[in-house]
Amino acid sequence: MSAVIDPGSTIGVVQLTVHDLANEVAFYRDRIGLRVIAEGGARAALGAGRRTLLELHEDSAAARSHGTAGLYHFALLLPSRRDLANTLARLVTTGTTLTGVADHGVSEALYLDDAEGNGIELYRDRPRAQWPRVEGALRMTTDPLDLGELLAGADTDAKSVAPIAEGTVVGHVHLHVSHLEAARAFYCDTLGFELMQRFGHSALFVSAGGYHHHLGLNTWVGVGAPGPPPGALGLRHFSVRLPSRSGVLQVLERLEGAGIPIERESDRFSALDPTGHRIVLEAASG
Question: Which pLDDT belongs to residue 159?
Fold first, then answer.
């Protein structure tokens, strides 16, 4: 039987290396509406309510690498369409530029870059019963999204700069990878995510528990593109949060069986995917 990750697994915290911490904190606080949960030294934690979603680590010597794999975007999932509309209103109010919008059938999404060029998706899901399928298989789409119609569902202007909705989570992470098949083998055969959809020969989407995707993987930078060098700006790591420690141990056993080195820090474990992205495994409970 194929390895299967616990169906309750989700994406946890995303960590980024940034050049100017104060500027990035201001961007995520003032434009996205994240709450500053902790800040000190060269680090800041931001989130929704009391939940940390994003950690920023300053390295003034770090530089943006070009022509390498790395983060395509991380995605914040809002609880409702109204919350997405309110977030759009906030972006309009603060004069924040969008890089794209789309109706994916499973979701409605807004795309933008932060102050240092890290990709962000803000989206809301449709109910699973409404997700498009062809012969039983999930088929995400990329259709136009009517921003005016979405914005009409926002609260009054007085509320448009309220903090991002509590209940917002990191819905997924989308990565540029070096080789698609090697990435599929790592995330599906070893970690145990399910392949949900392929996009030609250049991208695929995997998930736990039948979600449309917790991870997007693509070779759009170029097949064989190297991973980002040490000390580069961008993704430091992201975490996969499993419901129990036993679920973490099952994944660790598969990593060890595949000969993949594991690092341990307290009750968290991490490993590198074939491109060099670091994935932290942690348990929500004992």
Answer: 60
Q: Tell me the pLDDT of the chain averaged across its residues.
A: 95
Residues 39, 25: Cα–Cα separation, whole Å: 9
C-alpha span between 32 and 29 (Å, rounded): 6
- Please check the confidence at residue 158 and state whether its pLDDT lies above 60: no
CB 57 within 8 A of CB 276: no
Mean pLDDT of 87-114: 97
What is the C-alpha to C-alpha distance for residues 262 and 152, in angstroms, rounded to an integer? 49
The residue whose two tokens read 């055969």 is 189
Measured from the Cβ of residue 208, the count of other Cβ atoms closer than 10 Å reads: 23
Q: Residue 156: which pLDDT band, with cuts at 50, 70 and 90?
A: confident
pLDDT tens digits for range 33-55? 999 999 999 999 999 999 999 99
Output the DSSP codes for the chain.
------TT-EEEEEEEEES-HHHHHHIIIIII--EEEEEETTEEEEEETTEEEEEEEE-TT-B--SSS-EEEEEEEEESSHHHHHHHHHHHHHTTPPPSEEEE-SSEEEEEEE-TTS-EEEEEEEPPGGGS-EETTEE----B---HHHHHTTS--GGGTTSPPPTT-EEEEEEEE-S-HHHHHIIIIIIS-PEEEEEETTTEEEEESTT-S-SEEEE-TT-TTPPPPPTTBSEEEEEEEEESSHHHHHHHHHHHHHTT---EEETTEEEEE-TTS-EEEEEES--
